[in-house]
Write a structure and sequence with these properties.
The protein is mainly alpha-helical. The protein is built from six helices and no strands. The chain has one domain. The longest helix has 25 residues, at 20-44. The structure holds zinc ion. Zinc ion binds at residues 30-31, 71, 99, 103.
Length: 151
């Protein structure tokens, strides 16, 4: 799913919690951390793109590992339980996990989400979130829900 939609859905689901904007941050942070530097690099080169084929090796390596860490449910669950032990259950942290779950089913196999990394390489062949059908359905659902907020 696109990054702004992750944030909007996170707000919808966690707006009544004590930290709704932290939930929004966690909803978008996996993509921002993994792809943000590539976007900034591309923007400074005058070619805005998340495609990293022409990026320097260090940036491609960073992106690969950042994507693995931020899109792993195993890493996410480990952080969730460590935070729970220290501070009690922080349900808004699940915005991060929702991001991963949505990505599992909205990325095709060639861009599969490594949700069981580092232990398993299981891949799900999901739908393309950038297809017109997915974007249209997502926009309709988000629009319908956000109309309730704006009333
Ligand atoms: Zn993502």
């Amino acid at each position: 799913m696109d990054t702004p939609s992750h944030g909007l859905w996170s707000y919808v689901l966690w707006h009544a919690t004590p930290f709704p904007f932290l939930a929004v941050f966690l909803g978008i942070f996996p993509d921002v951390v993994a792809m943000g530097p590539s976007c900034v690099y591309s923007a400074f080169r005058g070619k805005f793109s998340t495609s990293c084929t022409t990026h320097p090796r260090w940036l491609r390596t960073y992106r690969t590992y950042a994507f693995l860490y931020t899109h792993s449910l195993i890493i996410g669950c480990a952080v969730f339980f460590v935070v729970a032990i220290q501070f009690g259950w922080q349900w808004w942290l699940l915005a991060w996990h929702l991001h991963i779950v949505v990505d599992i089913f909205s990325h095709p196999k060639e861009k599969a989400t490594p949700f069981l990394w580092p232990f398993f390489g299981t891949q799900v062949n999901g739908v393309r979130w950038w297809s017109k059908k997915f974007i249209g359905i997502n926009a309709l659902l988000l629009g319908g829900v956000w109309l309730r907020f704006l009333r």
